[in-house]
Design the sequence.
């Protein structure tokens, strides 16, 4: 299964703004780009405006200002959109008395796809046997799989998924990760919103981080976490160790009477400074500054969007 | 458009709602025919009211289940959030409502034909047994009237669903208006003259015997001609559907 060629493979969001009821600014001047051949994680705390943004991209919510395009075209102007964009926004968009297979066959009819495509995607998501059962008997994980099956029906170049890992068991999440990697590997553009930061870190190449409706950071995970590794060190002689590190041009942070954290230095260098100062060490550990740490720093700390309405600037 | 209509037929055919509504329509038709024939004690009296028997399917509130079926065509999409995948596949609300209008016109027509079949299956042998001989060619008018009332009420329901979106509100308000509120209009001086232009008044205008001048006046309100009544139902169905597509269905889906 390879994606169709010949279109701009990017999702471009430009100044999107949504104000509900004239006062609730859910999304504010949001601009970002999703690149082809990658999985982009769309992150933000609850109420950050992720789902509203995705719904604006997909033409379900009218933006107050700004625009978005998928492959250079606004979603509402796409010819047979299911063959261009596969989207799954919630695990409850199914009639409970309808079978999973019939749900897909309805979409096949609307998108002028052969009915056999429904069985193919059911196979792909592991629902072949459950496909003829009514959706009311599906677990949350099965509904997520059915939603994903619907997104794959038209063999689309773009995939937009809102919290697809919700309700999946660890095996399901692992399977989902594999699917995302596979789809991105085929050159497709995959945008996935999630609050499961550890999971996003495992499947996403890039992230777009949102806070209170505004963009706080976008880029590859490698770029965003570069130079942020830290060294944790424990010693019964913190005073001499502190002096040795300061003499070496570093400014350690004292976490407890015996524990220090040092940034911008390798474990070997810390060990060497301690050795030459004759300091006994009980622990020397490199601590990776992960996405979760970055996310909380950006959304709650110094990088969080300001409360007073002034735009954030790095 | 053909693809969208096919999708709409699949939506209807893949749940059991259509079956129960059809059963209700056929049941009401049967009751209507039985009641219509049994209420005339003498054969002579019955022979003078053959027209009443031939419009039983439309006079026995058979149009109410069809109205509800039309309402459900749109409101079920909102109730179960299937409107999201539906609009993702078809962003144009106009294309969507047009496909539903065409589909439910056909569905209404099929239901109407089946109701007429049940009506005739019960009525013809019974009338014959009571020495009332009926020529179907002479009853084309009443049969056509019944067909049109049933077919058009599916569209009125569809429009009501499109405009209100909320299933419980649309079904409750719609049915109460058709069965009760519209008739209460007849009791309000000045306002009562709009009655023939309500869906209920239009049905009365269509099915009441055109030659029965006394019956065509209700509380000083003159019913409109059967043709005008049919036009009123068409306008209600189309106007509500277009308003729904342009206003309520075009709102954010969040």
Sequence:
């Amino acid at each position: 299964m390879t994606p169709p060629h010949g279109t701009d493979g990017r999702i471009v969001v430009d100044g999107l703004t949504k104000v509900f009821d004239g006062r609730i600014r859910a999304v504010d001047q949001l601009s970002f780009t999703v690149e082809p051949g990658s999985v982009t994680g769309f992150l933000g705390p609850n109420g950050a405006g992720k789902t509203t943004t995705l719904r604006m991209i997909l033409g379900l919510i009218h933006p107050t200002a700004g625009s978005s395009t998928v492959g250079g075209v606004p979603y509402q102007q796409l010819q047979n959109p299911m063959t261009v964009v596969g989207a799954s926004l919630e695990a409850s968009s199914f009639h409970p008395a309808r079978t999973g297979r019939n749900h897909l066959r309805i979409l096949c009819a609307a998108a002028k796809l052969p009915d056999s495509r429904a069985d193919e995607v059911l196979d792909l998501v592991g629902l072949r046997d459950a496909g003829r059962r009514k959706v009311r008997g599906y677990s949350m994980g099965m509904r997520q799989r059915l939603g994903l099956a619907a997104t794959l029906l038209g063999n689309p170049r773009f995939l937009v998924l809102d919290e697809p890992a919700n309700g999946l068991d660890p095996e399901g999440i692992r399977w989902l990760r594999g699917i995302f990697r596979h789809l991105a590997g085929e050159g497709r553009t995959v945008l996935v919103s999630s609050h499961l930061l550890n999971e996003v870190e495992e499947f996403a190449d890039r992230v777009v981080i949102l806070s209170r409706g505004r963009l706080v950071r976008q880029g590859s995970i490698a770029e965003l976490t570069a130079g942020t590794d830290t060294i944790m060190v424990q010693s019964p002689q913190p005073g001499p160790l502190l002096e040795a590190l300061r003499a070496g041009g570093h400014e350690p942070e004292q976490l407890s009477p015996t524990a220090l954290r040092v940034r911008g230095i390798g474990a070997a260098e810390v060990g060497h400074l301690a050795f030459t100062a004759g300091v006994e060490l009980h622990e020397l550990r490199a601590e990776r500054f992960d996405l979760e740490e970055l996310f909380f720093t950006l959304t709650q700390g110094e990088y969080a969007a300001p409360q007073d309405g002034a735009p954030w600037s790095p | 458009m053909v693809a969208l209509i096919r999708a709409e037929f699949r939506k209807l055919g893949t749940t059991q709602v259509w079956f129960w509504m059809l059963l209700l329509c056929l049941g009401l038709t049967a009751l209507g025919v039985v009641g219509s024939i049994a209420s005339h004690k003498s054969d002579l009296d019955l022979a003078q009211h053959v027209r009443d028997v031939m419009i039983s399917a439309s006079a026995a509130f058979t149009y109410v289940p069809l109205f509800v079926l039309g309402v459900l065509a749109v409101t079920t999409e909102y109730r179960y959030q299937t409107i999201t995948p539906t609009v993702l596949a078809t962003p144009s609300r106009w294309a969507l409502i047009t496909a539903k209008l065409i589909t439910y016109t056909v569905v209404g027509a099929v239901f109407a034909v089946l109701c007429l079949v049940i009506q005739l299956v019960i009525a013809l042998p019974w009338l014959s047994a009571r020495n009332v001989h009926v020529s179907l060619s002479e009853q084309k008018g009443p049969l056509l009237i019944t067909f049109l009332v049933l077919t058009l009420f599916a569209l009125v329901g569809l429009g009501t669903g499109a405009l209100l979106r909320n299933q419980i509100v649309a079904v409750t308000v719609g049915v109460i208006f058709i069965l009760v509120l519209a008739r209460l209009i007849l009791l309000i001086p000045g306002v009562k003259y709009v009655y023939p232009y309500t869906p209920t008044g239009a049905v009365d205008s269509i099915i009441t015997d055109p030659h029965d001048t006394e019956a065509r006046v209700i509380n000083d309100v003159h019913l409109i001609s059967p043709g005008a009544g049919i036009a009123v139902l068409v306008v209600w169905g189309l106007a509500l559907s277009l308003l729904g597509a342009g206003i309520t269905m075009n709102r954010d889906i969040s």
Q: What stands out?
A: The longest strand of chain B covers residues 217-218. The longest helix of chain B spans residues 93-129.
